[in-house]
Amino acid sequence: MILILGLILLIYVLTIGHLIYGFDQIVTYKNSEATPKTYFAIVVPFRNESRNLPHLLESIKKLNYPKTMFEIILVDDFSEDDSVRQIYNWRMQNGEFHTTLLENVRISNSPKKDAITRAIPIIKNEWIITTDADCVVPENWLLTLDNYIQSHDVAMIVGAVSYEGKKSFLHHFQQLDLQSLQGATIGSFGLGLGFMCNGANFCYTKSLFQELNGFVGNNKMASGDDVFLVQKAMQRYPDKVHYLKSKSNIVHTKPLNNWKSVFHQRMRWASKTSSYQSVFGKDLAVIVFAGNLTILIGFVFTLIQKVEINHFALLFLVKFVFDFILLQKTNAFFNKKRMHFLMLISLLYPFFCVSVALFSLFGKYEWKGRRF
Fold first, then answer.
1. pLDDT, tens digit, for every residue of 88-103?
2. Based on C-alpha coordinates, what's the Rg of the chain?
3. Burial, 183: exposed, middle or buried (Cβ in 10 Å; 0-12, 13-18, 19+)?
4. pTM of the model
5. Are strands 98-103 and 241-243 parallel, antiparallel or unpaired?
6. Is the distance from CB of 191 to CB of 18 less than 8 angstroms?
7. What does the alpha-carbon distance between residue 273 and residue 238 come to, in Å, rounded to a whole number?
């Protein structure tokens, strides 16, 4: 048994090692002093985000970018709170910004994909950038994108997303989980095998979206407005899809405040894995699941004395070391000073990961007050 577990874990650590190598292949980008030339459309789908929208809009207001060179398009997905009133109030006070409010038109099983598709026909600018209503964008967000676009032959740009939470264990758990995903994203792009992104910081041309037929083919999945589109683009134009590894382009969002919501969110993320077009993405998901399942099985077999405790400890330590290296590199990029509860989270994560994967195959999840 220990030999089988060891072999599975060997495949896991070799894969993580490969991602660590890929991570270092993406050079951190620094802004040039180029004069802004790119016109953007910021698209924000939202539902019941009354508390968060004012913070996002204020961060957009503070952008270090000419106001005449970007438009804001907000798409309301049938909010039941006063989100729309918040937008009207902000728009009245900030008339110098070109702001459009639309109502979503549901044509598929994916509200967010429908919201973005709803915005596309009225967008006047070539470059589209999506973010979420519970985010705050950095002041040089658009300037960094513009500088990068001017200096690279690119049609799609994937950006970084980080949590800004409190000091609770739950928030630190989500931070480390998101950092592991961000590390895998950067590493995969460094290997030329990018397959994942985050719709909270995702940029592409309107012409590319239309050429790829948008979200056609993936509308049955409630989520995936980001990953399915990036995988389509990688299949068609891999050289024109880049990861922008820049400290001035990191979008911050809020972690969730209870374990049930976190579990449902991760189920939503995991549920689309089987529909990936990327072979590498599917393989990585299976390998990560197998690596965590190995620790879980090893723990159980240690309890019933089928595996010696020192053998299990060795398995756990080897996995921990490789996970730590990737997390540490990602943590340094995000300027996080410390990774809290790292050992405890590493012990609990295999149980969480395996549970999410299994429930995503058979269970239902809640999202924005709806069940999917």
1. 999 999 999 999 999 9
2. 21
3. buried
4. 0.95
5. unpaired
6. yes
7. 20
